[in-house]
Amino acid sequence: MQSEIRKRLIEAFTNAGQEYLSGQYLAETAGCSRTAIWKHIEELRKEGFLFEAVKKKGYKIVHAPENVTADEISFGLKTEFMGRSIHYEEKVDSTQKIAHRLATDGAVEGTVVVAEEQTLGRGRLDRRWHSPKYTGIWMSIILKPNLPMHKAPQLTLVTAVAVVQAIEDVTGLLPQIKWPNDILIDGKKVTGILTELQADADRINAIIIGIGINVNQKLEDFPEDILHTATSLSVETGQVISRAGLMQAVFARLEKLYLTYLKDGFYPIKLLWEGYALSIGKEIIARTVTGDIAGKALGITEDGVLKIQQEDGEIRHVYSADIII
Ligand code: BTN
């Protein structure tokens, strides 16, 4: 975990923008000695941060490295609570697993577990999520809303809208959402969201939102079985995208939408979600565990359940399925 001093130090540099900060100022802001500040700056240098140091003026950060450590994510972060507590790992089986443990141990709302690589990334419907080293965003966010359990799927849709908006902010691409929570670009999957619950007597104790975003993979990095159905932001834009920058954008969008949702309910989110949805108004097949349901996707209910109108006019509600368009 990132220390409090390190957090305050990075926040001071974030707020300073292009200004230099003196050692004295940094020591006062972070609540430690100037020697301690100097040691932290040395450690940040080792992580890959570049500082410009000017006599009588102080320090400024001129380059942040390209990993997703707590320091890199915090530098430039403009949220109140989302992503303010970061648990970083180089390699894990699944960030979901760690997030569940932290949530049980009392992690604060907005805590994020992030890893450079997952060896057993979990997908929906018990599938695996390919999570190679340094190329994607593999993270789990802990939220603790005071809500009944049946509202949990709404939070998945809140997250999907936030991720679409963040991708749009950072890359200019216009992704779409395939119900319930796949994010696609030109029909290929760029993001998956997996929501898991810790609940008690029908109330949510914690909700663990796992987000996997394919960011800087090249086409040849994808395994054969998903090569034709997956893509990355880098493949789509031809550029290398800052993962930490995109995470900050996701946290900013998610915090805003989540607070709107808690205050005004699901309706404003539903409208946004339907605006980004790929399948609404189209003929689709929902592949459920009990069989296929074919018909026209009408939209989602207040609970985020998909409504499909069959040929015979009957309207079916779909809670969990793979959608074929
Ligand atoms: C899907 O099947 O579309 C959902 C994929 C979710 C993957 C993310 S990556 C970070 C988090 N940790 C996991 O093990 N899974 C989720």
Automatic annotation (TrEMBL):
One annotated Gene Ontology cellular component of this protein: cytoplasm
InterPro entries in the cross-refs: aa-tRNA-synth_II/BPL/LPL, Bifunct_BirA, Biotin_CoA_COase_ligase, BPL_C, BPL_LPL_catalytic, HTH_11, Transcriptional_repressor_C, WH-like_DNA-bd_sf
PROSITE patterns: BPL_LPL_CATALYTIC (PS51733)
DNA-binding residues: 23-42
Binding site for biotin: Q118, R122, G123, R124, K189
Enzyme Commission no: 6.3.4.15
Keywords: ATP-binding, Biotin, DNA-binding, Ligase, Nucleotide-binding, Repressor, Transcription, Transcription regulation
Catalytic reactions on record: biotin + L-lysyl-[protein] + ATP = N(6)-biotinyl-L-lysyl-[protein] + AMP + diphosphate + H(+)
Residues covered by the BPL/LPL catalytic domain: 71-262
One GO BP annotation of this record: regulation of DNA-templated transcription
GO molecular function list: ATP binding; biotin--[biotin carboxyl-carrier protein] ligase activity; DNA binding; transferase activity
Source organism, top-level taxon: Bacteria
NCBIfam families in the record: birA_ligase
Family indicated by similarity: Belongs to the biotin--protein ligase family.
PANTHER family named among the record's database cross-references: BIOTIN PROTEIN LIGASE, BIOTIN--PROTEIN LIGASE
Known role: Acts both as a biotin--[acetyl-CoA-carboxylase] ligase and a repressor.
UniProt-recorded name of the protein: Bifunctional ligase/repressor BirA
The organism of origin for this protein: Mesobacillus persicus
Higher taxonomy: Bacteria, Bacillati, Bacillota, Bacilli, Bacillales
